[in-house]
Amino acid sequence: MVTQLLHTKCHMPPWRTNGVSRPRLRERLQRGFLDGRKLTLISAPAGYGKTSLAADWVQQTALPIIWLGLDEQDNEFGRFLAYLRLALQKMSANAGSQLQTALDAPHLPSLEEIAACLCDDLAQLGQEVKENGRFLLALDDYHKIHQPLIHDLLNRLLAHLPPACHLLLISREDPPLPLPRLRVRGEMTEIRAQDLRFTVAEAAQFFNQAMQLTLSPEWVAALETRTEGWVASLQLAALSLQGRDAAQTEAFIHAFGGSHRYVFDYLAEEVLGQQDAEVREFLRVTAVLDRFNASLCQSLTGRADSQAILQRLEQANLFLIPLDDERDWFRYHHLFADYLRAGLTPQELARLRASAAYWCEGNGLRFEAVQYALASGDSDFAADVIERALEKNTTWSSGNVTQFLAWLDALPPQTMQSRPQLSLDASRILFTLGRFDTAETSITQAEQALQALPATPETEQMLALADLYRGSIASVRGDAVQAIEQIQFAQARLLPENHLAQARALFSLGQAYHLSGQTARAVESYLQSSAEAQAAGVLFLVVHARCAAARLQIVQGRLRQAEQTCQEALQFAENASIPLLGLAHSLLGSIALERNELEKADRLLQEGISLSRQGRLMDDLTWGLIFLARLRAAQGAASGALTAMQEVQAIVQAYGVPRMSLLVSAYLARIQHDTGQKEVAVQWAAEYRTLRSATLREFEELTLAHILLTAGELEPLPAILHPLLAQAEEGGRGQICLEAMLLLGLCCQANQEETAAQEWVGKALRLAAPEGYARLFLDEGRPLLDLLPQARPIAPDWVDTLLTMSQPQYQPHTPFLAQLPEPLSEQEINVLRLLCAGLSNREIAAELFISPGTAKWHVHNILQKLGVSSRAQAIIRAREMGLIEYGLT
Fold first, then answer.
1. Distance, C-alpha 851 to centroid of its chain
2. Secondary structure class of 322 (helix, strand, coil)
3. Closest of 116, 73, 78 to residue 98, by C-alpha
4. What is the model's pLDDT at position 673?
5. Contact status, residue 87 vs residue 167, Cβ threshold 8 Å
6. Does the pLDDT value for residue 483 go beyond 50?
7. What is the torsional sign of CA 12, 362, 360, 536?
8. Which residues contact 841 (CB under 8 A, 6 or more apart)?
């Protein structure tokens, strides 16, 4: 969730024009930058002026910079990436698009993929930079990061850092990165505490110019010696010296000393002692805030003049750091804030943090409200705030689901046990993350809590949601019967106006209907889910459900309808500005592939796969790659087809879904079969036949039939294909019917049952022609194409189209029988076929088991009907009329 508060983290603190410029350090930084080094590390304890030095360098040299200030909450990986994306946008509004798509995905991608996306985004930014062709990526307060994933991300980033980018890390301690290697290779510039210590000359400039004190060189040297150039203590000393006369100044300097900790405590007391009681109280109360503006300060202090006090604090140089150019948001210096908070009692800390949570919640800063609520130590109050925050976030993606789970994990178990709504939210979050067993545990916890409460309409609705979520889990696990029963039971009790719950129920019901073979009902459920999601305003589900419907419409054999559904999804998404419609493009590509529009299919599939990769939508990516493998096989690119399927296998193995694993292995076997790896395909068939169960797996069975047909093992085919066809016809899955009919036709052809073969091909053409199915015919090659001419009367235009696709030299003609004054009989067609093959009358007679005289008589009739006087002319005439191209030779 992006708010104004978040944007302040991406604002580099300004360097004061009256500050101490440090050219000796600035030149070192600039030299390392211009030399093309990868990293600059400014590492020193608190209060050494690390951030001020970076600001001085950047502003004096006008370097393009991406700035991100870090805090403890940024150890949540999704949150860190979200802030990083915001920081990139400060340089260019369109920057970080690939990183954003990772955050929008249902599941965060692998670390390697995120690093690649970040490198690509930085490389793209590099093309926009004019100054020296390079820019800085600065991470301030990096010592607050202790999440290994973030360290690993930076490690990978450094390994592949685009030349245009230079990484700047500002930290109180060395980060766990390969610093020795970078140091040996000369790829890093380092600024350490000893470098940052003020020299006497710099201290004099600081006291006498920046702080407008008049200190003698001896006094400056004494302070520099006693503080060892520690900038924070020098600043505190300067604040303490303001308003003192010469005698008081000299006494203070002589008394000044001690370790940094004691010096800080002493000087902080001295600084606060110089302020009036109202300012001291203001500082003390607002110290609990990580960031603040006047309104937030007013809510904690009750002071209507909070803006004026903030202006006074800034003018007094009192450790107040602006976070934006408008001087609206501020924070305290961390050490100063730590000191101030140490003076608050636990009761005061809890009360103030709760007040901050209320203000943030009321101003739309729900994420920050939860952080303050959790920090208050009141688990019941925090649970209330979390419940309200989750209620406002109806659409969840990988960018915030992990954050939600972290909130829930921070609550004591007993708090969750007494809050059924929160347990239901937890189950949905865990379901989204694929943690189904734990999700079921949360559902059980919610049900137990609800059963202990009096029955009310509200508790009944929550119990219905529990049943719905159980049904959703059963659906993704493949238990269709249980899923349908539970979802329908829940759906009947859910309020009609709860559109989001109804949309989720209908989507899961669509999955269950699909698994049980009720394809038409599945399509209807998906389309209803889309409509309910639209009423709920959950835009991603609107499009996702339409794409699910389109995929099944293709299975139904309704290519035109599926194409329209995909176009509707794309149009809706465009109007609603929803990105990442990879599946819609991939489905359109698969439709183009079925129609043998290979160039169009290639373009759409490439676009769909690219979008699915960006969105890290693994299901969408899987289907896009499967379609691409089929396309590459159709193009004769065997290696490309197998490469696509290897990636599909890797994705499915990572998710470990048994049903999908079986299906993908069948797709791989089909690709291997179609690209000439017959032995491997036969091996799959043998293994699959040992695993076959009562549950009919249609694609797997079709693949088995293909392989057996090619291997000449015809006897089992009818027993495989007839039940498959009957089930597909009953379920309305026209594409399955079409392929089964073609295989039955080829089986009959192989058994020399020509009439039956023609009947099956004719049935297939009746299904295929209206929707434009071509690839299923072309993939079977010459055996099936030889059957088409005889079946031409059933779909003449489509047969001509298929033959033209298979034989570019083929020119469609008017059917040869229709061109003749008197049609040829079936026996005359047989004679003509043999005549064109060069056989003599005697050879024709032997081939057809007729007498030579009868053969001669047929030849005579053929010549007359063709209007020619010789065999040679008959052959030429047959070729002109398309007889040879129709497969009669």
1. 74
2. strand
3. 116
4. 93
5. no
6. yes
7. negative
8. 852, 855, 856, 859
In angstroms, how far is CA 841 from the centroid of its own chain?
71
CB atoms within 10 A of CB 577: 7
Instruction: Look at the alpha carbons of 792, 797, 802, 808 in this order and tell me if their dihedral is positive or negative.
Output: positive
**Cα–Cα dist 373/355, whole Å:** 9
The neighbour count for residue 306, using CB atoms within 10 Å, is 21
Interstrand relation of 330-332 and 320-322 (parallel, antiparallel or unpaired): antiparallel
Angle between helices 398-410 and 379-392 (to 10 degrees): 160
Both ends of the chain: CA-CA distance in Å? 70
Q: Which amino acid is at 885?
A: E
Neighbours of 771 (CB within 10 A): 22
Its sign, for the CA torsion 403, 409, 411, 414, is positive
What percent of the chain stands above pLDDT 70? 91
* Residue 609 in tokens: 């796969």
Residue 526, helix vs strand vs coil: helix
Q: Please name the residues in contact with 132: beta carbons below 8 A apart, sequence gap of 6 or more.
A: 33, 34, 63
More confident residue, 27 or 230: 27
Q: What does the alpha-carbon distance between residue 738 and residue 725 come to, in Å, rounded to a whole number? A: 9
* Per-residue pLDDT reduced to its tens digit, 854-885: 889 899 888 888 888 888 888 877 766 655 54
**What are the phi and psi torsion angles at 113 (to 5°)?**
-70, -40
Per-residue pLDDT at 3: 41
Cβ proximity of 408 and 422 under 8 Å? yes
CA gap 600, 584 in Å, rounded:
14
Radius of gyration of the chain (CA): 38
Rounded distance between C-alpha atoms, residue 246 and residue 659, angstroms: 86
Q: What is the token pair recorded at 562?
A: 């599926």
Within 8 A by CB and 6+ apart from 525, the residues are 506, 507, 509, 510, 513
Q: Give the span between the Cα atoms of 401 and 661, in whole angstroms.
A: 27
Give one DSSP letter per residue of 476-510, joined into a string: HHT-HHHHHHHHHHHHHHS-TT-HHHHHHHHHHHH
d(CA 832, CA 830): 5
**pLDDT tens by residue, 760-782:** 999 999 999 999 999 999 999 88
DSSP-assigned letters across all residues of 820-854: SSSPPPHHHHHHHHHHHTT--HHHHHHHHT--HHH
Q: pLDDT class for 557, splitting at 50, 70, 90?
A: very high
Distances from the Cα of 331 to the Cαs of 16, 294, 360, in angstroms?
16, 12, 16
Mean pLDDT of the chain: 86
Structure-token pair, residue 844? 């024709």
Convert the pLDDT of each residue in 115-174 to its tens digit: 999 999 999 888 877 555 789 999 999 999 999 999 999 999 999 999 999 999 999 888
The per-residue pLDDT for 398 is 46
> Per-residue b/e over 396-405, b at no fewer than 16 CB within 10 Å?
bbbbbbbbbb
Distances (CA, A) of 589 to 555, 600, 607: 15, 7, 9
101 vs 157, 556, 571, 573, 643, CA distance in Å? 18, 32, 20, 15, 25
CA distance 721 to 871: 44
The mean-pLDDT minimum among 147-161, 309-323, 813-827 falls in 813-827
- Indicate the helix (H) or strand (E) that contains 186: none
Phi and psi dihedrals of 264, rounded to 5? -65, -45
Quick one: which of 315, 367, 365, 313 has its CA closest to 340? 313
DSSP state of 436: H
Instruction: Give strand pairing partners of 206.
Output: none
**CB contact at 8 A, 842 and 852:** yes
Query: Structure tokens of 293?
Result: 């503006």
